[in-house]
Amino acid sequence: MTRLxxxxxxxLTVVDDSREYSTIDSALARxxxxxxxxxxxxxxxFLHFWxxxxxxxxxxxxxxxxxxxxxxxYLENQGYQVAxxxxxxLAVVSDSxxxxxxxxxxxxxEDDSNFRIADGYLIMVDLIKEVLKSSGKVIDVKEIxxxxxxGKYDLSINGKKFAGIAQRRKKNxxxxxxxxxxxxxxxxxxxxxxHFYKEGKSQESKIDFPNINSQCMANLSDLLxxxxxxxxxxxxxxxxxxxxGFQIEQS
Length: 251
What we know:
This protein is of the alpha/beta class. The chain has helices at about 1-5, 25-40, 70-75, 115-130, 185-200, 220-225, 230-245, and strands at about 10-15, 45-50, 55-60, 80-85, 90-95, 100-105, 140, 155, 160-170, 175-180, 245-250. The chain has an eight-stranded mixed sheet. One of its GO terms (biological process) is protein lipoylation.
């Protein structure tokens, strides 16, 4: 975990909202606040866990669906809170079986002057690979084009995506966020967003919205063949960082 280890001399504050589900607005506001703090004070890191009850987080591009309001109403009628995030990507689903978390890192110092956009993604990739190393599974990093919110840094096992990464930057800080499908009904998540794009008439758009295939996505618990939970994964992430020399402080 070489890339992230360059930060292990700084205190790492853990903000854990997993005991009580946040609303999407409060979660995004907290992330923004953390980004602002690190942008102002570069002598700190933050790790923010923010699982959500039934929620669909849309990307800015999703607003360009020809029938966006109708598609958004469909999601709300299915019992999901809906929000548009100010970070990259397209629509993703959150529920009790999905873990969202963010790493906020300082990048404005002299030693960080060559911190590339790719580095933010690769730090998160390295962390997840380290966390799951004991499983013995090969984690691939490549776009799964028929997943929802496909991207260059999708994480998959045997061709099935279980996580996606996005990031947001300010001058002196970067916020790298990931969702991990841990357990639950992944096919239903795919069906929900597939219908969202159908309702939004994505086929009439000049934008290449994803044609979602549920066979391209899976939960970590299924891929690892274990009864992994969100809480267990949170503990694994904390333990990995602790073993790598980070001084963890609870907020």
